[in-house]
Amino acid sequence: MQNPGTTTTSPTTPKPQCSSSSLSFLTTTLIKDPKPKPILYTFLALSLFSILLILSLTSSSRSSTHTRPDPFLYPTHQTHRIIYDQDKTTPPPPSIAYLISGSKGDSGRILRLLYATYHPLNQYLLHLDPSAPQSDREKLALVVQSNTVFEAAKNVHVMGKPDFVYVKGSSPVSFTLHAAAILIRLSLRWDWFVSLSADSYPLVTQDDLLHIMSFLPKDMNFVNHSSYIGWKESKKLKPIIVDPGLYLSEGTEMFYATQKRELPSAYRMFTGSSFSILSRNFMEFCILGVDNLPRILLMYFSNTPSSLSNYFPTVLCNSRQFNKTVINQDLLYAVYDSHRNNLRPLNSTDFDNMIHSGAVFAKKFQPDDPVLDLIDQKILNRSPGSVVPGGWCLGEPGNSTCLTWGDASILRPGKGSKRLEKAIVELLSNGTFRSRQCI
Ligand SMILES: *[C@@H]1O[C@H](CO)[C@@H](O)[C@H](O)[C@H]1NC(C)=O
Ligand SMILES: *[C@@H]1O[C@H](CO)[C@@H](O)[C@H](O)[C@H]1NC(C)=O
Ligand SMILES: *[C@@H]1O[C@H](CO)[C@@H](O)[C@H](O)[C@H]1NC(C)=O
Ligand SMILES: *[C@@H]1O[C@H](CO)[C@@H](O)[C@H](O)[C@H]1NC(C)=O
Ligand SMILES: *[C@@H]1O[C@H](CO)[C@@H](O)[C@H](O)[C@H]1NC(C)=O
């Protein structure tokens, strides 16, 4: 336990454990130059991105030496071990890989969501789609780089080259798989994959969530699904589409074929919602697995509208290996508008319902809606521009709580963990979840 602020506030003295890292060298260069020449600046920022990208693609053994987190956050001192081992009732905390994505003008929301969901044990990948200018991506990376905590834990990454995401088409599936593949390469440690859009927000702290998830089997998948396909769904699923993002360099309107096709009979089709909490095992099955089911379904869904809501539930429920791991509840609080087509924006009126639902996340929110400040204040105990204080923050209460680090694996769950525990217990009680699995 030591205050690392003293070493990190001075960018000219890089910390010994990362002086070999080209990333920290670049940061140092960027900050040291009093009057950065625009061309040099752009060049450095661009190299930064290539390095980020290369880092994510190099072999895991190499990247693990490059992205080793600050030892203060992961102390290996015996004292911690002993204290930790005595507490046999609490299993070691799991870790979550977050993909946080948005469009033009969403940088601020992405950062806020990052602060609100931050924990040093997790991994984060930030993505701005091609509608946002490259300068926004660069600015985002620079903000991440200049944050003492993110720099020390080395767990926040920005995708330098954007993927096309056309929500009504199939490109979101390819984007999600791409991001999950990067996260699998970046870290061997994470247990669940969560993809958040910039209009979502958490309803519990990461300490609450990781604490509750440490008691769950690591192969559980939380995703809303149903094989009931009424006329309304059928009408939505039968069209053949071609997503422009898959073959045109400039996004245009989606292409609809004049003919429609029958629903599949070679496998059962499931519909669901685009949000889910998926296990690492399952993501590896989809990306690296030798079973061809994920790829066959990928090809089928490439011509189907709104594929992201249906791809993962269909793969899960058609696979003998995974169909028993599905929980038919995504732990997301969302309210549809009166036409039941789109999500209605949530506001302060929804606060109590949202909290009592026991959900982990909620969506959708308008940018900087006052209800987000309410959640920060009452639930997350977060002050503007800083991360949610957790068991790893040992500083004085206030803005600098998280600049003095303790062991990242010590969680301090609060009231949110009780709400979540109640919701999960209800979900899993007396085996009722089995009767709602893949139906
Ligand atoms: C899982 O798949 C197996 C084999 O296809 C099937 O017998 C079983 O009923 C499925 N379980 C669920 C919950 O769908
Ligand atoms: C997911 O399913 C749960 C329970 O079936 C339901 O309460 C919730 O509204 C669903 N979420 C979405 C986004 O449809
Ligand atoms: C919240 O949204 C609902 C439905 O759109 C609306 O009736 C209500 O007045 C809103 N409340 C506030 C505080 O804006
Ligand atoms: C935290 O920082 C904000 C803005 O930087 C400031 O307004 C607030 O007074 C600070 N709070 C404490 C407790 O230092
Ligand atoms: C089992 O679940 C059903 C349906 O949710 C509920 O009505 C019943 O009380 C539960 N039984 C026990 C023993 O928890």
Automatic annotation (TrEMBL):
Gene Ontology terms, MF aspect: glucuronosyltransferase activity
Domain of life of the source: Eukaryota
UniProt-annotated stretches for the region Disordered: 1-20
Residue stretches spanning the membrane: 39-58
A Pfam family of this chain: Branch
Primary localization: membrane
Membrane topology: Single-pass type II membrane protein
Cellular component GO terms, alphabetical: membrane
Subcellular location: Membrane
Protein EC: 2.4.1.17
Keywords carried by this UniProt record: Glycoprotein, Glycosyltransferase, Membrane, Transferase, Transmembrane, Transmembrane helix
Record's protein name: Core-2/I-branching enzyme
Name of the encoding gene: 25483077
